[in-house]
Amino acid sequence: MRGFLEAYCEKSIQAAPLAVFRILFGLMMFAGIVRFWAYGWIEARYLDPALHFTYYGFEWVQPLGNWTYLLFVLCGASALMIALGWKYRLASVLFFLSFTYIELMDKTTYLNHYYFISLVAFLMIFLPANAYFSLDARSEKYRFQRVPAWTVDSIKLLLALVYIHAGLAKINSDWLLEAMPLKIWLPARTGMPLIGGLMGKEWVHYAFSWAGMLYDLSIPFLLLWRPSRWLALALVVVFHTLTAVLFPIGLFPYVMIVSVLVFFEPRLHHRLLQGLSNVLGIRKSRFDNGREWRPGSVMANRFRMGVLGLFFIWQLLLPWRYLCYPGELFWTEEGFRFSWRVMLMEKTGYAQFKVVENATGKWYYVNNADFLTPFQEKQMGFQPDFILEYARYLKGHFEARGGQEVAVYVDCFVSLNGRPSQRYIDPGVDLGREKESFSHKTWILPFNDEIKGL
To answer: What is the pLDDT of residues 57-85, one digit of tens each?
Structure first.
């Protein structure tokens, strides 16, 4: 095994796929930042709300007031620097830190694809993606035509883990046997041109559910096998274009489309770079010097490989942490985030909070709109960690205002994948006294049904 690993680490390939990935990733991230700013989402999601829901352990990550705009400028500028391959190492670090900070500022905006972008950004810090066709590579010192095979394969591995975990997560009774939640979502798209008439048909809901599962589980292998690679690309384009049309999930479908190009032979990437050279008036041949990039020192290489090894072990195991918790995952959501369970449930809830003054027994209901934006209130109504954080916020607010200790109770009902609403939180528990932790939240009431599967 050791001999195999040593031989693999010595294997090299053309650097062109890494260069193309760098350019496309950087440009799409820059476009995403510009889009976010243009839609006014910086103000609406980070500046206007009085309360920001935080991730456990990252409560210190908060919006920076008007300096938040500068944070987005830094993120967009570093993305463009990545695309250009200019001061690439610094740009990669800055993009990872700034984008991840933005992602952590408010978990109300959590999306799987934000997490994916942070992972890719972290991975790119350790890859010599500026070795070829970059502004850095104008200097002979940083110009290399070949890179170790693992640098490209690491991107392939990350993409494969995302797809396979997403496919395994779809092997559940709601998705495959009930076509949920597509049976709820697709009929709302009946007004679309061309395909709208099909969106209300039940067989289409089941076809989409099964096709989605089979697609996720098979696409990494179809991309890895050379004879099926172009078929796989066609499937990727159709699948992600369709999801982009049907669901408002931003740039993620397009990021996945351009990312899978890394599976293709270097000659395709050389053609793409030659076309870009012709447009920009750049002499591509100047980068074809035959040199091979190698890590600087033995210690530096061991550190790099150690970090990447731990990174991939973490990505392999993290989606399965839900097995450490009792109860139905979709109901409790303990271990749900960061596990590639993409669009697997439709959950709605209503939460009415009651504040009780312990000394006098006086109580009153809370108008959630006084503290939360409509989007925040919607997300809070069915996610237990949101409910807990909001209850503790209310406790602090009313105790500061009234000068006496209060208890906070919630009457909460939630519906999961079209089922009738049921009481979600134990109404007799003072949530103001509960602490956030990685432990199971015993005040979540049991799910009155069963979802079979992974």
So the answer is: 999 999 999 999 999 999 999 999 999 99
φ/ψ of residue 63, rounded to 5: -55, 155
Grouping H, G, I as helix, E, B as strand and the rest as coil, residue 128 is coil
Q: What is the pLDDT, as a whole number, of residue 443?
A: 97
Nearest to 82 by CA among 22, 32, 135, 33: 22
pTM of the model: 0.94
| Cα 146 to Cα 15, 40, 255, 298, 325, distances in angstroms | 5, 43, 25, 19, 46
Contact 79, 95 (CB under 8 A): yes
Two structure tokens written together for 403: 């000068």
Residue 422: strand pairing partners = 414
Helix (H, G, I), strand (E, B) or coil at 347: strand
Kindly write down the DSSP assignment for every residue of 280-338, as one continuous string.
HT--GGGG----B---S-HHHHHHHHHHHHHHHHHHHHGGGGGGGS-S-HHHH-TT-TT
User: With the CA atoms of 63, 64, 69 and 75 taken in that order, what torsion angle do they form, in degrees rounded to the nearest 10?
Assistant: -70
The secondary structure element, H or E, covering residue 32 is helix 16-38
**Model confidence pLDDT, tens digit, residues 117-128:** 999 999 999 999
Nearest to 331 by CA among 390, 414, 443: 414
Averaged pLDDT, 93-119: 95
Is beta strand 146-148 parallel, antiparallel or unpaired with respect to 12-14?
A: antiparallel
DSSP assignment of 210-276:
HHHHHHHHHHHHHHHSGGGHHHHHHHHHHHHHHHHHHS--TTHHHHHHHHGGGGS-HHHHHHHHHHH
Q: How far is CA 91 from the centre of its chain?
A: 21
Dist CA 47 CA 33 (whole Å): 16
Is 240:254 a contact under the CB 8 Å cutoff? yes
Q: Which of 19, 28, 16 is nearest to 258 (CA)?
A: 28
> What amino acid occupies position 187?
P
Sequence-distant (6+) residues with CB within 8 A of 228 are: 222
Per DSSP, the three-state class of 13 is: strand
Mean pLDDT of 155-169: 96
- Would you give the end-to-end CA distance of the chain in angstroms? 32
